[in-house]
Amino acid sequence: MKAITIFESQVQGILQTFKAADLYAIHLTSYHRGEECCNKQLISDIIEKDAVSGLTILSMFYTAAEKKAFQEKGHLVNIGNLIVLATYTALEIYLINKFKEYFSFRVAGASKINVSAVLDNLPHRSMDNIVELYKDILDIHLPEFEMDRIPVDPHSSFKPKSTWLGIKTIEKARHEIAHNGKSKNYKICLLPDVWDPFNFVRRWVMLFDANFDTLIYESRTSPMV
Length: 225
Fold this sequence. Notes:
mainly alpha, 9 helices
């Protein structure tokens, strides 16, 4: 199965988590405001269609009091932690599988090379290992693949100064969550704090796959490569 197919399957799983979190956020804000959760059409669209509410995408849909209360009580923090873990894992798995695809293509026909044995013994224990593999073997410099900034919530915690710093921000947050239960350096309070890095990774992978497939398989450069 292709790397991009596996990644897209994982993205769908993360989106389902977002949907569940979105429904929870809708009921949570209604409860906090002392209102009935009566927007049945919105709930139906979230469940039945490819939709999420503004509470997932923009923090402006929360009041200042809700932001403070939800942060203090951690209502959405643990869900956000799980989403960050899943997002980084999907990215790392994609890069490992994509490397295997490109390497297998490059050595196709080399009968003396046991491709499977080589791939099984390549180090990919961290993003730094993956970067070295791409650079040393494929001559692809991952940190230099820069994409146009995608729209983000101006009040979310995700504000990387470059594409690669965005990936490193997610990686660091993942490691802190995995080892300490929470991230000290990346603040997760509301759903937009995790929607932005998720959407960023999704966009990066789609662009990477399209541009480098053109380079590797067709020997053609693209506007981004």
